[in-house]
């Protein structure tokens, strides 16, 4: 059967779809105009202010869905970067995304964005809005495998912060940064279990916490105000003391979007938090499990560093990404729903 589209008027987009730990990633190959800006952060602002209709076209229904996630490769201003990237979700544009980095590392090697792949690992330098992230892709006999990455400096912003959460009263959270800021609290505080409770109940609790933190906590990042915002809340199983082989969590970010993976930037921030509290040592690995799919990442602090006036660590996160397809999308000119819509 000929799968070519019949003649039509409108824009076309080519994408590759992947998933890491169950969470999707739609990588844009073509269809976007040039994203203007002197650097990746300024390109993020330009995409938000001038190209946001294309984010909605590719991520929203009928081509995507409420929890679709996207990556738009852009040119980096850093000479050591193999690629720059903008991250897109249902609300806008993230500053970091670990599940996307794991997928993009494999994608970059497979699609020839790095010269001369090397065995047993090929390094891919990916310039994110939060900074340069180094991915290391397993490579043997022309095939790619697992990916690990080294984060930007991750640090604890505040611990034991009490916020008034609508419907739940006073809730005490920790706030940590792993390329994006997250609030952390045990799901038990709300009478929930991250692996057994209804996803709707977890989303409602996490969203209420995020709203409270956004309205009651003043964020600061030492290098850029563009990074100083609460991205979401991670509900944990409370097992921070190595009492089990894995600790589970659920991340709810952006506009109540649920991460199917353990959340790469969330694992980064959680490792930094555990290291800050003396619960883990350098190079002591932990396994982090998604409460929704059961998929797993490993994480460990590999080096002490600083981020402005914060003590920080570089965190290594490892996982696997898989291809799910490649698509050619069209946006017909006379389609009243061409810019997409969401049903929640």
Write structural notes for this entry.
With 344 residues, the chain is an alpha+beta fold. It has two domains: 10-150 and 323-332, Diaminopimelate Epimerase, Chain A, domain 1 (Roll), CATH 3.10.310.10; 154-319, Diaminopimelate Epimerase, Chain A, domain 1 (Roll), CATH 3.10.310.10. The protein is built from five helices and 18 strands. It has an eight-stranded mixed beta barrel. Strand 16 and strand 17 (310-319) form a beta hairpin. Helix 3 packs across helix 5. The longest helix has 18 residues, at 199-216.
What's the helix and strand layout?
Layout: E1 10-20, E2 23-30, H1 40-50, H2 52-59, E3 70-74, E4 83-88, E5 93-94, H3 98-110, E6 121-128, E7 131-140, E8 143-150, E9 154-165, E10 169-177, E11 181-186, H4 199-216, E12 230-236, E13 247-253, E14 257-258, H5 264-276, E15 286-290, E16 296-307, E17 310-319, E18 321-332
Parallel strand pairs: 2-3, 4-6, 11-12, 13-15
Antiparallel strand pairs: 1-2, 1-18, 3-4, 4-5, 6-7, 7-8, 8-17, 9-10, 9-17, 10-11, 12-13, 13-14, 15-16, 16-17
Helix pairs in contact: 3-5
